[in-house]
Amino acid sequence: MDYYNEELGLKVPEHVAIIMDGNGRWAKAHHVPRNMGHSAGSKVVEQICEDAYNIGIKYLTVYAFSTENWKRSAEEVGALMLLLRNYLKDCIKRANSNNMRVIVIGDKSGLSEDIVETINRLEDVTRDNTGLTFIIALNYGGRDEMVRAVKQICEGVQNGTIKASAIDEQMISDSLDTRGIPDPDLLIRTSGEQRLSNFLPWQLAYTEFYFPEVLWPDFNKEELIKAVEKYNARERRFGGRKEE
Ligand code: FPP
């Protein structure tokens, strides 16, 4: 449910999802290696978690690494993994001091063992935190997530614990990595690109989309508030009719 922020005079979406695009273009514009674009981007993630919670957002999901990102050069994949490894470790130290709960979605079986261990520890030590729920999509692909969910449900049907006739939207939602997390209210993709790129296709069915031109490393609190303002100008009907 939206929260009304009196100071801003805005209703604030409960769950914001972000495709952090434009790190490469930012690096190019600053005449620095691509990897510096990603590291600048990761600093912005840290700040936005704080800003998001301070304005009243309860859930923030970011697309950190997709199942398709493995196609990038070995050098770039290596640099992104190193960045994420360090970020997750650092997050273990920081998350408790700002009461943040961290959840990682995506196919963990495709990640290196030490990263999985760090993720498990991070999820474990932050489980009971009551501040921002920060969801990191890592080795995540929406279609891959659905395939894993379908397999899980089929196993249930096969072993007799699930009746095929009992399969409904709720059961599918509960079989996805995002089980228990409300669907995003607002999706932001930076850098002017207007694609979903396999990000949360099931969960974004009724979400409002916003595509600012700003490159992710330049994203900040003002940009976040601008996105919330755009969200306020939208009228969400969830397939129903406008109330007279
Ligand atoms: C897209 O920019 C961005 C990514 C593929 C990676 C996003 C990762 C980060 C922001 C850093 C790590 C994340 C966390 C959670 C610490 P691009 O490289 O496609 O940019 P371009 O389209 O301009 O080339």
**Strand order, largest beta sheet:** 5-6-4-3-7-8
Number of helices: 7
Beta strands, count: 8
The CATH homologous superfamily is termed: Decaprenyl diphosphate synthase-like
Spatial shape: globular
Order of helices and strands: EEEHHEHEHEHHEEH
> Architecture, CATH level 2?
3-Layer(aba) Sandwich
The protein's oligomeric status is single chain
The CA-CA distance between the termini, in Å, is 22 Å
Quick summary of this structure?
The chain has 244 residues and is α/β, with parallel strands linked by helices. It contains seven helices and eight strands.
Topology of this protein?
Layout: E1 3-5, E2 10-12, E3 15-19, H1 23-29, H2 34-55, E4 59-66, H3 74-95, E5 101-105, H4 113-126, E6 133-140, H5 142-158, H6 169-175, E7 186-189, E8 208-210, H7 221-233
Parallel strand pairs: 3-4, 3-7, 4-6, 5-6, 7-8
Antiparallel strand pairs: 1-2
Helix pairs in contact: 1-2, 2-3, 3-4
The protein binds farnesyl diphosphate.
Farnesyl diphosphate binds at residues 20-25, 38, 41-42, 45, 62, 64, 69, 83-84, 87, 136, 216.
